């Protein structure tokens, strides 16, 4: 910004390459601050960057100690990025239909170059669930859920649920026996949703005379599976939720989560 | 044209001055040319013809209309998630003639397509659901052990459908089974009969046949 060195084209030939780049219009249009050689410019470097500004401007020394944070939040975020990249790559081959799903998974493993890609996605998913739990454990053990961070703890709980839902929806996509029955069993829980599940408490109250308003053909499980049992509709729905719906919500909540770490006073220090 | 406007404004202005007086008095006051342009009172008719009351009633109608439109849109969008046509096996089917089935045997021919076992006893036939009452997996029929065994969590059922081992909390369900006009067995999966509710004694839960 104001600290940027003035551009003086007449002296360009005398300057070295770094100075030339730093004084170019392209550089100055991107980085609106001088070199980060003083506190003000270092702060500006963070504040004027959309990605860095989610982070605290300053981090406590204790916040960098691995023994204190375990870096599990960072590892979780890293794994989310790994999952996004590998997942995106898998989408180039995988087709979410009853006809092709299982064969495409097989194809990814046996024929597509770097057949480990799907395994990377799977291992990353397992690791992410573990790291999310460890992150939660660390935050709990250090008392970092206490005011003023109680709101961010709740955001984190939503992110935990979304992580588990990502695992659950991804479970179905290989379309093998394990996937079929795991999701059959898992989605049966939706039948017991209060009011909205046809076997749930209160759903029998929703009736017009002899006609039950909530039944197997319109309850919460039906909306989830697009059918009475796990079939083609469920595969497509889970695919869309797994690849678009849940990641988008999780990304938004992660932005809020990181931002609140900053706004709530940075990473909490040891008690 | 512009003169009229000025006149009107004068009346309003006069009305402001003689607030609370009767209209006749306002008119008298209007007769006197007033040069001072005072601001209109909030309660009286505004130059634009909008009163506070009409503004808020219009705003209210607007909000109601907007909320209604949003509600209708969201309802329609939620309805979008519930398909009208399902590409699933039909819920009722014809299962051939009773004489096609062997006495004392669990028949698996409709398991794959319709999720139903047909069991023939000395007295007749009944249609068992292939959905485990624990968490919804499909048990296997093990003829050697004369039982249904669920591979997911090990629930076991007698050929009658009664549970006897594993975590299943209740017997397998039976479907409606009747004889059609053409002499064929007709099974309707929309109608279920649960043993623990005493529904197995329902006439449609068991097809009498001794032929």
Q: Please name the CATH topology of the largest domain in chain B.
A: Rieske Iron-sulfur Protein
Helix/strand order of chain A? HHHHHHHHHEEHH
Query: In total, how many domains does the architecture of chain A comprise?
Result: 2
Distance linking N and C termini of chain B: 104 Å
**Beta-strand share of residues of chain A:** under 5%
Structural category of chain B: alpha+beta
Q: In which range does the helix fraction of chain B lie? A: 25-40%
Taking all Cα atoms into account, the compactness measure Rg of chain B is 40 Å
Biggest sheet architecture of chain A: 2 strands, antiparallel
Number of strands of chain A: 2
Measured as a percent range, the helix fraction of chain A is 55-70%
CATH class of the largest domain in chain B: Mainly Beta
- The assigned structural class of chain A equals mainly alpha
For the record, what CATH class of the largest domain in chain A applies? Mainly Alpha
How would you characterize the overall build of this protein?
The complex is a heterodimer of chains A (271) and B (211). Helices cover 56% and strands 1% of the residues of chain A. With 271 residues, chain A is mainly α. Chain A folds into two domains: 41 residues, no CATH class; 202 residues, Cytochrome Bc1 Complex, Chain C. Chain A has a two-stranded antiparallel ribbon with strand order 1-2. In chain A, strand 1 and strand 2 form a beta hairpin. In chain A, helix 7 runs antiparallel to helix 8 and helix 8 packs across helix 9. The longest helix of chain A is centred in the C-terminal third of the chain and has 32 residues. Chain A is globular. By secondary structure, chain B is of the alpha+beta class. Chain B folds into two domains: 55 residues, no CATH class; 117 residues, Rieske [2Fe-2S] iron-sulphur domain (Rieske Iron-sulfur Protein). Helices cover 27% and strands 21% of the residues of chain B. Chain B is built from four helices and eleven strands. In chain B, the strands form two sheets. In chain B, strands 1, 2, 3, 4, 9, 10 and 11 form a seven-stranded antiparallel sheet that branches. In chain B, strands 5-6-7-8 form a four-stranded antiparallel sheet, with no helix packed on it. Chain B starts with a helix and ends with a strand. The N terminus of chain B is likely disordered. The chains are: A mainly alpha (271), B alpha+beta (211). Chains A and B meet through helix 9 of A and loops of B.
């Amino acid at each position: 910004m104001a600290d940027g060195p003035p551009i003086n084209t007449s002296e360009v030939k005398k300057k070295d390459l770094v100075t030339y780049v730093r004084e170019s219009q392209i550089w100055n249009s991107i980085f609106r601050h001088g070199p980060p050689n003083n506190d003000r410019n270092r702060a500006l470097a963070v504040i004027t960057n959309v990605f860095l500004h989610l982070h605290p401007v300053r981090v406590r020394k204790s916040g960098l100690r691995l023994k204190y944070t375990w870096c599990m939040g960072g590892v979780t975020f890293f794994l989310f990025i790994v999952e996004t990249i590998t997942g995106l790559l898998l989408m180039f081959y995988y087709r979410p239909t009853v006809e092709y799903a299982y064969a495409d998974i097989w194809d990814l493993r046996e024929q597509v170059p770097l057949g480990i890609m799907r395994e990377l996605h799977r291992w990353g998913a397992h690791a992410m669930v573990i790291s999310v739990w460890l992150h939660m454990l660390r935050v709990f053990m250090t008392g970092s859920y206490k005011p003023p961070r109680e709101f961010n703890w709740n955001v984190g709980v939503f992110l935990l649920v979304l992580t588990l839902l990502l695992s659950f929806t991804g479970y179905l996509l290989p379309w093998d026996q394990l996937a079929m029955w795991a999701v059959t069993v898992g989605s049966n829980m939706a039948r017991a949703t209060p009011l909205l599940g046809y076997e749930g408490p209160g759903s029998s109250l929703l009736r017009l005379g002899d006609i039950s308003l909530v039944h197997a053909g319109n309850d919460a499980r039906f909306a989830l599976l697009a059918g009475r049992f796990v079939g083609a509709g469920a595969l497509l729905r889970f695919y869309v939720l797994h690849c678009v719906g849940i990641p988008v919500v999780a990304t938004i909540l992660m932005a809020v989560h990181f931002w609140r770490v900053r706004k709530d006073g940075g990473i909490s220090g040891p008690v | 044209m512009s003169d009229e406007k000025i006149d009107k404004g004068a009346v309003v202005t006069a009305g402001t001055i003689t607030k609370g007086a009767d209209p006749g008095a306002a008119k008298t006051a209007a007769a006197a040319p007033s040069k001072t342009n005072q601001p209109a009172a909030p309660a009286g008719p505004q130059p634009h013809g909008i009163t506070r009351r009409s503004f808020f009633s219009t705003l209210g109608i607007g909000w109601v209309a907007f909320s209604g439109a949003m509600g209708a849109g969201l309802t329609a969008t939620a309805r979008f998630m519930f398909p009208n046509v399902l590409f699933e096996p039909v819920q009722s089917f014809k299962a051939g003639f009773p004489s096609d089935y062997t006495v004392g045997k669990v028949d698996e021919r409709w398991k794959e397509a319709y999720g139903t076992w047909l069991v023939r006893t000395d007295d007749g036939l009944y249609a068992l659901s292939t959905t485990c009452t624990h968490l919804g997996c499909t048990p296997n029929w093990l003829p050697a052990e004369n039982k249904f065994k669920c591979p997911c969590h090990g629930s076991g059922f007698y050929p009658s459908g009664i549970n006897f081992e594993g975590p299943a909390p209740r017997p397998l369900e039976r479907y409606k089974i009747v004889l059609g006009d053409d002499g064929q067995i007709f099974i309707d999966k929309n109608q279920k009969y649960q043993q623990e509710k005493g529904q197995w004694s329902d006439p449609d839960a068991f097809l009498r046949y001794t032929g």
